[in-house]
Amino acid sequence: MTTPHVLERAARCTQRFNTLFAEYFDTLGADLEVPSYSRFTPDCLRLLRELSLRGGKRMRVVLLHEAARLVTDEPADGLDAAALSIELLQTHGLIHDDLIDDSPTRRGGPSTWYAYRARFPDHPQTALGMTVLAGDLALALSLKVLLDAEMPTSLRQAMVEVQTRTAADTFTGQIVDLERDFGTAPGEDVLHGVADLKSARYSILAPMQLGLLAAGGEPGHVNGELRAYARLTGICGQMRDDHLDLFGDAASMGKPVGSDLRQGKHSYAVRHLLAAVDGAERRIVESALGDPACTDEAVAAVREIGERHCVPERIRADMRRHAREASAIAAGWRPRWRSEAVAFFEQLPLWTAERNG
């Protein structure tokens, strides 16, 4: 399978899903029991729609469909419902992440948190409460869409179990993500655990499990391999994000570098930096870490220190090592599943490690 063919298939999948997602929101108001006197509920649904439809690459949806292709190239029941569930859970995560991080923008528009702040400038608790409730509603809808889907009861139950477990794992990851930046700098095992729980479980593992279920596969029999693959690929992706946050190109990424540094996050990049420097250089890094007023010049100085100590190269080496390990796990699936589809999962971690945006 050549890369152009994979990209074309992913583009078709994304385009079809975007249409499906818009149609879902078009009918959602009639599907929910919304009191006629409520003004806030329709507004909340509109904000959910706006954020959800501003989606990017829809890689979770692509992973879902590619996982089904491991078993069969025929249409599979439940894929549409599973795709909606995955992206509604993502919407929930984005809303709460932006609230936790106090982020003003998301996907080229205002975050839900800042949209509510603008609506209720004199009622900050209302803005806070509505943001939390909007995220909670997206989570509930991610499960409801599965419960309402026309598919065999056993499949519906299995998919709901996957998404419920995934949500719980993600929340635990978010808690540990906040916890890691208190006290002593976390070790690599903690960073790996956060990347696994907060990201890999719902971005990689759950889409693969749901896709296999929809296609009639039995992911429970290979759950250990799927978890290992998702964990390694997720760690690789988090390392890439952390690397780009400090050492990436602001122009190509469309956002300034150094946000993790300013927020005091003990990212993979920060961990490598602190391990590489001492004396005056370490004091420069530590003075910038957690300083929201840290200037662009100070970030540039930290970045220069990291480059001088080959920190970007060390992070990239770690990324490639994890990518190769994940790819090797996927290669072992060839006797079990369709070789053409396995190739996608072999290449995915390697592509993740090399992606620059």
Automatic annotation (TrEMBL):
Protein name: Polyprenyl synthetase family protein
Sorted UniProt keywords: Isoprene biosynthesis, Magnesium, Metal-binding, Transferase
GO BP annotation list: isoprenoid biosynthetic process
Pfam families: polyprenyl_synt (PF00348)
CDD domains registered for this protein in UniProt: Trans_IPPS_HT
One MF annotation (Gene Ontology) recorded for this entry: prenyltransferase activity
Alphabetized InterPro entries for the sequence: Isoprenoid_synthase_dom_sf, Polyprenyl_synt, Polyprenyl_synt_CS
Cofactor list: Mg(2+)
Superkingdom of origin organism: Bacteria
SUPFAM superfamilies, alphabetized: Terpenoid synthases
Organism: Streptomyces genisteinicus
Family per similarity comment: Belongs to the FPP/GGPP synthase family.
